Structures are given as C-alpha cells and as structure tokens.
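SEVERITY: medium
COMPONENT: batch folding queue
REPORTER: lab tech (J.R.)

DESCRIPTION
The queue accepted two submissions in a row. Attaching both inputs and their returned structure tokens so the on-call engineer can compare them side by side.

ATTACHMENT 1
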Amino acid sequence: MIFKGKEQKPITLGVIIGNRDFFPDRLVSQARTEILEVLKEHRINPVLLNDQETKLGGVETFSDAVKCSALFEKNRKDIMGVLVILPNFGDERGIAETLKLANLNVPVLVQGYPDDLDKLDVARRRDAWCGKISACNNLYQYGIKYSLTRNHVIRPADPAFVEDLQKFIAVCRVVKGLRTARIGAIGARPGGFNTVRYSEKLLQRHGISVTTIDLSEILGRANKLDNNEQRVKERLERIGDYAAIGKTPQEALFQIAKMDVVLNEFVDENMLDATAIQCWTSVQENYGCNVCTSMSMMSENMQPSACEVDVTGTLTMYAMQLASGSPSALVDWNNNYAEDPEKCVLFHCGNWAKSFLPDIEISTAPILGTTVGEENTYGALSGRTPASPLTYGRISTDDPKGIIKAYIGEGTLTDDSLNTFGNRAVSKIPNLQGLMQYVCRNGFEHHVVMNASHTSEILKEALENYMGWEVYHHSSNEMSEIEQM
C-alpha cells in the first residue's frame, strides 16, 4: 500500500474497453475478465457495457460510444472516475466520443496492454503501445483531462498497475470532494493574522462554498446550555473517552463540552465538510476556554478543523485527508532544529487530531495564557507526534494573480528529542532551505498542513491536472523556481 488510512468506502468507476475489429477478439474478452477480477478484489464497483450490448462489450464505433455514454449518464451520481482499458490499439474516436457525450467531468485513467515479444504476428499482436498514444492525443484534442500509468503499458494484474489504480482512486476522491466542499468559517479572522486572508470568490469558482457565522452566535448558544442537559453530559463523556483530562477543572470541561455541542450542531445543520474557527483570542476572553479539544475531535472524525479562521488551511487538511484516508493537522513552520538544515519543528498550541498524539492530554496554552490568563486556556491539547511518513503542503488563494495555488512535498517525522509544550513534532525534509525560499518568495502562509502518509503525487495530480491550480511539487533533486532564476 502507498499509505495507511482509515478504511475507505467502495467507489464506482466507469470502464471503457477499447477495441479495433481487425485485432483478435479473444484479447478483448480476456481483458474484460482480467480487469473485472482486479476491480472486484479491490472493492471497486464497475459500470461497463455487457458483452451483448456491443461487440464483446467493447467501444469502437460511434454507436458503441452512444450506448456507453448513456450507461454512464444513468450512473452519473455514482461514477467518480473512468478507467480506459486498451487490450489492443483501440479506437481513439470511440473512447473520446464516449467521454464527450457522457460529460461526466471526472478523472480518467488510461491503461494499455503490453505485447509479448514472441506474439507479434498478425493473429496475436496488440499494438496498445501505439494505440495509447493515439487515444491520449484525441482526449487532449477534446479537452478531456486524463491520467497515465507509470509504465506506458502494463497488465491489470501487475502489482504496479494495482498501485496506480489505488492512487487514481485517491485522485478521484480528492477531486470529487474539493469540487463540492462546504467549509464553515466561524467568527472573524483575528486582527493580527492577515496571513490567513483568502478569496471566497475564487474558491466558489472552483465549487468550494464557505458558510459563515459570527462567533458571538456560537458563544451565545453555548452559554445558554445547562450543565445538566443530556447532550452536554454526552459530550462530556466523549471528551473523557477521547483524551486524558489532566488537571483540567470540571467547570472548564463543561465549557468545552457545551461549545462542542453547538459546533457540531452548526456542522450538521449546514452539512459542512470542514470548519475554520476563530480562537485567538476571542474565545478565551469572552468564553473562558480553548476550542482545541473540539477541533481535534472533529479532525479525528474526518471533519477537519483549523484555527484562526484559516479557511484555505482547513481546505488543505480536507484535500490531504481525501488523498490518504487519514486525519490531517494544521501546524506552524515554527523553529529551526539546532543546526540541521533539513529539520525543523512543527508546532501548534494545539488542536491536532488524536492520530498524531498517542500521549494526548487536555492542558492549557501557555503562550496564549500570558495575555489572557492561563486559566482561560484549558482545552488546548498537549502531545508529541512520533516518527512517521510525512506529506506536507498548503493551498492558498493568490488574489493579485486571480488563481488558486499550492505547494506540496514529502519527508518524515522523526523521534528526535524536543523539550517543549503544546502539539509538537520534528520534521526532516530534503532541501528544506530551498522550500522555505519558495514559501517566503511566493507569499504563502506560516501555516502548513501535515498528514502521516506519502501522498504528494496524488495531490499534485488532483490539484494541478483536474482542479487546474498552480502546484509546486518540492523534491530533494529540485531547487525552487526562484532559486533557478
């Protein structure tokens, strides 16, 4: 597996088996059997023509394309992507016309079968190597976005194809999730955080909706709840089951629980996928606790939540969650790690999902406490993230350019010693100094998102190819664009 995440629900793919009639019929029949076996093994629901509707269930003529597109149209709500199988050269027009007529606007993966060196006679040759180029050329002409396998031709049963397929499914999840994402912006951006400003209009152009509510409405509803209400008691019990309460006073726990009730009701009422919440410093001054515990619980429950009303930060959390199937966390690029140029400290005060914090405990936020009183910051979490894979990145709206942009990359989280408080981790990233040059020169935020996976290739394909965003993919062999100038 390319990543470890929570078990994913089965998804549905449309399947087009390309054909060209002067190639052997048995190649198409064999391909149909083989791909259906692979899809079944990996819990993927296929939508494809049966072998009676067209010749062998393949797509070659315009008539075939009409039948296949009608089938796809019938299953439009379920189909998250399309898999094109080329057991032979195939007919590039039939493939392109099917996708044009169906107009699904979903990711497309193109596969081609390899030939056997001893079977290149007229009766047994495939020519899918050449046919795949022709099929992609037509998709390009039609303006249809598509993805490729790492090996130009490959058999469906090959483990490398299975990995390509898993990545493609993750790309489909990211694209579908982002195009209909609903984010709650709870409260106003803190005055001292210009860094998290964003363009709601640019997001909406790409299908991402933002629902706003004033923080006073949330605090007002929470203050009206009684400690003895059943829903408050239930939340209090869930909090106790979720994290060690440490020295947190009972009254502070009730405050946290009541706000958690209201926040979850707001999420449910508005069918939100993620939230960004005002914290610094209104919640502490006007309510008397931190909201970190609730945010952590939501993120762990695959409803990512970011502080400081960082809407594009929580959008990044959501994208990484869709790619990996595991929770994400919003962090600060916070400190150098001694003299090591490839390591830095990731920190927040802290609201990371429990998946990152095996020693999770409800505590206070000492830095924030210096201005609002530490007794008003109960609800912040303490914990250290152990060694794990790392994908990091950031989505941002660039208003002067009128675009959405992102940077992504991979590294590791380490077990290096770190004597501090809050939510904390040590990261090791190849060419970290080059990355920081890129982040600073291109006006990205000090917030970044981390996920315990290696899924940057999935994110690049989804964000750049299908969402149409400007993406910088950082690697150890690659200096930033600015450094190359």
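ATTACHMENT 2
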Amino acid sequence: MSYKAPRRCSNGRNFGVERHQDFAADIAPRRPYENKGPNKWSRNLVWTASDGNKPRKNGNTYGSTKSQVSGTAASVSQQRKNAGYGQVSDTRGWGSSNRGSPKSKECVCKFWKAGNCKKGDQCSFLHSWSCLPGLVMVAALEGHKKDLKGIALPQGSDKLFSASSDGTLRIWDCHTGQCVHTINLQAEAGSLICEGPWVFLGLPNAVKAFNVQTSKDLHLNGVVGQVRAMTVGNGMLFAGTTSGSISVWKATDSESDPFTYLTSLEGHHSGEVTCFIVGGHRLYSGSVDRTIKVWDLNTLECTMTLRQHTDAVTSLLCWDQYLISSSLDGTIKVWACSDNGSLKVTNTRRHEQSVHTLCGMSDAEGKPIMFCSYQNGTVGICDLPSFEERGKMFSTNTVGAITVGPEGLLFTGDRSGKLRVWNLAGTKV
C-alpha cells in the first residue's frame, strides 16, 4: 500500500496581494529566501492511503495482531527507504544532529523535576529531556510568556514562526536560534500553521496570511470569534472559532482576488472548534462540545457526527485510513469505517491524564510513530499501529503545540511559552 500526504492548498499558485504594513513591515528586511522544493511535512503529518478517502473498515481490527504491525511498518519503510533522518540541513538549521543537548551534562536536574530549580537557564543540568534513543534537544528558544498556539516552518524559509496567547508573533533564525523579530499582534493569537510558503495566523475575527517568499500578505475577513484551529485541504483554508463556526476560503488563480471567502459552516458545533485534520476527501473537526464532525470536502456538507468522547476533543490525526482522536476525557480513540459506511471506535486507549495533542511522523527506519501530549507535561511516543511505547519527552508544563519539520526536526511548545527544537537523528532503534 502506498502513502501520500494530503493535497496542498497553494498548489504552486501565487495568492499574494498588496501587502499590509501592519503585519509585513516588521519582518522586512530579511535574507533572500530560496525555494528548496516542496515541503513534505505539515503541522500534523497525515498518512492517507491512496486507494480510499475514508478510514478503513473494521474487519481488520486495529492493532490486534503482530503481523499488522510488521506489515504496516514494511510498507511505510519501503516507500520512505531513502528518507532516513540524518544530519540537519545546513540551510535550515540548528546545527548538526550529533550536537546533543545544549547543556554541558546530559543529566536531568532533580530540582527542575521537583519544580524548584533556582538556577534557571544557568543550570548545568537538563530542564527538558527525552528518553527515546536518537531524539535529542538541539535548541531551547526563550521569549514567549504564555502558551504556544502554533509553530510553523514555511517552505523556502530559514525562519521559524511561533505565536502565543501572550499576543506576540516571534520569528526565529534557524541558523542562530535567535529571535530576530517580535511582532505585537495587539490581540491574542489562537492558531498558527503554514502551507507551502504561506503562514496563516488566527486572530479574533480574522486570519492573517503571509507569504515568506514574496513578503505579501492578506487580511482574511469573514470570521466570527477567536480563531482556535486552522487547516488546509482541497484548495481551501478552514478556520474554526470559539463561536463554533468554520470559515472557508477558496484559493483561486485570480491576481485581484487570490484567496476568496467561500462560506461559513454554521449550526453544527455547539462549542469552540479546537482541532482539524484532513484525510482523503474528508475534513474532520473536533470541538469542546465533545463531538467530531465529518465533512465532505467536495460538498462542504456534514455527513456524520461522532459522539464517543465524554469531554472536549483536543486533537485529530489520520493514519492509514484510520481516524485517531484525543480528548480531555483521558482517552485516545481509533475510528474505522464499518460495513454501513459509519465510523465506529475500534480501539480506546485510556490514560490517567487528559490528552492534549497528537502528532505523527516516521522514525529513522521509516516506521510511523505518534507523539501524545498529556496534562502533566509528559509526551508519550508510541509505535503505530501497536501503540507500544517507544519513549517519552518531559516538560514542566503541558505541551500544547507539536509540529513536525524537515529532516527529522520536531518543535514543541508548552503552556509556559517554552519552545524546544528536537532532532530525531538517524540512529536505528
């Protein structure tokens, strides 16, 4: 079975218009960007089988036998056999993969673990760490004061973007790890994603779209409420808000109207929209109203509502035609398509802590792994489809943002504003 990433919104089009000084001027001047080709990574990497557009029928029980694990791993590995993680690219950062921890001693500070280390950044012991072989922290980026709402490394850029509820957008140089620009948004940032060279920033009643290659930006109207989640699919941008609405813009080839407001999907979610994922020809949206809505990307109609969670849905992931969801109820659920076409839960993983973020990538051997962020600051790392634990990452606060970057890079942001850069090196585990 072959795997492919979801369709990208930009698709080579130039959506730029005359730039607005309030957003773009603070970023210039900048180093010329190079177009290094398509970026195969997205905010939450989606593995979607090419022979279908919906989760797999549950006649083949998810994660039930050992053969499924090896079979899935073999097919992914074969497709990605030349995509192993090695040294980090010199052009996009953070030094080489064997650089290890920025601290002098690879030992966790016992006072930090207890929450009372008084040395702070001057401490010679680690204040963030992981126990997954081959995964090392290569940079600790300090500056945000509140929780990270999104981390984005757009295509063709050597700058990392991060947005926080502290009302700032920070831009970091991937070569030095230094913050080169801090933009006061004069509003709370609710979401940040990138697609191709575009960076999308969710604000109250608006979305900002900025192109890192052309320095042009858009102010997208048509939003009611604070934008909390965004995604792209089938040539459209979707923004979910605190009001429960989902605003939709369509990418066009028109120079005068490159990003056209299409519609608002109203009257379905009764609470804040918290997360999206696109799989095949479907959009999935999660909400604090405890439901997951399934939308047809061709008709923009809601085709079904999933109601198995007992608390707010926090994150969604598509893998091998399965839908995986997490919730504040402490569960991770796996959904598969039944014989009548409806989605049914085929596996429920229960945890003592509420689950906040899911993110997927492939390890050095091309095997799919999933990162699961919990309330207590830990991030579990497990194999798919077996859910066998591979390792953990640790932080003093809940990790609310996890973004996959190129060449084994991983970015995490926690509720205190700490931004960490990790590298999954080429070590076989």
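NOTES FROM REPORTER
The radius of gyration is 20 Å.
No errors were logged for either attachment.
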